[in-house]
Amino acid sequence: MREDIKKHPLNVEGKYYVAQDCCTCMGACEITAPNNFAIDKMHYTSYVFKQPETPEEEDQCQEAIIACAFEAIHDDGE
Ligand code: SF4
């Protein structure tokens, strides 16, 4: 993980995460990858509540990265 990125504290451990400072809570990730992303309504940001466990979920997480216009979703590839 890049050290200048502030991860949302609700992100579960794993390669995908949302950068809290970049997310504008527009919701594309939750629509694209509903099994993995959720909105934190208290703080108007999204977070990864589950890392992908299937090829389909992996594809959806990659699509979420593309769908996020604010480049708030990161993949450390680990
Ligand atoms: S798509 Fe990006 S900006 Fe929109 S809620 Fe998800 S992480 Fe935040």
Features:
Alpha-Beta Plaits, single chain, binds iron/sulfur cluster, 78 residues, alpha+beta, 4 strands, two-stranded antiparallel sheet
Question: Which structural category do the helix and sheet elements fall into?
Answer: alpha+beta
In N-to-C order, the SSE pattern is: EHEEHE
Rg over CA atoms, rounded to whole Å, is: 11 Å
Helices, by number, come to 2
Helicity, in percent?
10-25%
Give the N-to-C terminal Cα separation: 10 Å
User: Which strand order does the major sheet show?
Assistant: 1-4
Structural description of this entry:
With 78 residues, this protein is α+β, with helices and mostly antiparallel strands. The chain has a single domain, classed as Alpha-Beta Plaits, CATH 3.30.70. Helix content is 23%, strand content 18%. The protein contains two helices and four strands, in the order βαββαβ. The chain has helices at 28-32, 55-67, and strands at residues 16-18, 37-40, 45-48, 73-75. Strands 1-4 form a two-stranded antiparallel sheet. The radius of gyration is 11 Å and the shape is globular. The chain starts with 15 loop residues before the first strand and ends with a strand. Iron/sulfur cluster is lined by residues 18, 23-29, 46, 67-68, 70, 72-73.
